[in-house]
Amino acid sequence: MAEPLLVVQAVTKTYQRDGQAPHLALDGIDCQLNRGEVMVVVGPSGSGKSTLLRTLNGLESIDSGAIRVDGVSLTDPATDVNRWRTEVGMVFQHFNLFQHRTALDNVALPQRVVRGRPRADAERYARELLGRVGMGDYGARYPSQLSGGQQQRVAIARALAMDPKLMLFDEATSALDPETVGGILELMRALARDGMTMAVVTHEMGFARDVGDRALFMDAGRIVEMGTPDEVFGHPREARTRAFLEKIL
Ligand code: ADP
Ligand code: MG
Questions:
Q1: What is the reported pLDDT for 217?
Q2: Predicted local confidence at residue 248, as pLDDT
Q3: Which of 117, 121, 152, 229 makes a 20 to 30 Å CA pair with 215?
């Protein structure tokens, strides 16, 4: 049988900080994710959630351990990290769109630059994806002319345009007005329904319980507890998990 789409083994990551002791941000992370499944990651601020996603995306190097996606090892010298980043899509809290490009160009340009798609093909696919995320009428707008929720929709379309094998969401709704959060969660839910494999850092516990196939609770760079959302959020075994859940619910 093929191995899970994502395999993370004994990953450690230390940040070196000027004038301070090095900080162990990931302290032996082991987890796996099957094709088409959604992993939800929760934990207090500073527990290493963003660092974990950033290492999965190749934005941060790891000190030791292994990360494989679809059987390809991130740390294999033969692996092109730039290509890896396009196959593992990432959606950030603050959208990170190109400010001086239209919504259409934000989705079309990476296809041309990274995938070498001809302009007409890239723009056709960009229009299709903008339609899929509910932004079909906004292709000509610049990010500054869009609401936060609309910018996040464009950012999701941009990531999808690379046909990623895995999508990572790092608190994708945390910077949004409360009334736009639901729409983005609905879009993420639709992606999951369509079979996208996703790792999602979120504080939206309703979403995490509904959409998650597996759940991780992280603290201090470690996975404290892992299981189904019902196990981890409904019947936590660890005192640290319970204390965290009591605080946020
Ligand atoms: P979370 O997303 O769970 O809030 P992070 O992964 O952002 O946690 O951070 C984990 C720890 O690593 C924190 O203590 C944070 O201060 C530290 N950290 C994160 N990024 C850096 C960095 N670029 N340089 C130094 N320390 C960092
Ligand atoms: Mg974070």
A1: 98
A2: 87
A3: 152
Q: Which residue has the least CA distance to atom 26 on ligand 1?
A: 15
pLDDT digits (tens, 9 = 90+) for 202-236: 999 999 999 999 999 999 999 999 999 999 999 99
* CB 50 less than 6 A from any atom of ligand 1: yes
pLDDT at 191: 97
CA–CA gap between residue 132 and residue 45 (Å, rounded): 33
Calpha distance 123→108 (Å, rounded): 5
**pTM for this structure?**
0.96
Ligand 1: does its nearest atom lie under 6 Å from the Cβ of 202?
no
Report CA Rg, the chain: 18
**Helix-, strand-, coil-residue percentages of the chain, each rounded to 5:** 40, 25, 35
- The arithmetic mean of pLDDT across residues 114-124, rounded, is 95
